[in-house]
Amino acid sequence: MNQSANHLPLAGQVAIVTGAGRGIGAAVAQLLAASGTKVAINDINPDRAERTAAAIRAEGGEAAAIVADISNKFQCSHLVDSTRREWGRLDILINNAAIKPSSSILKTDEFEWQRVMDVNLKGTFFMSQLVGRVMADENQARGGVIINVGSKAGVIEPLVNHAAYAASKAGVVGFTRECAREFANYGIRVHAVTPDEPADAATVAQTILSLCTNPDSPLIV
Question: Which residues belong to the active site?
Answer without folding.
Answer: 165
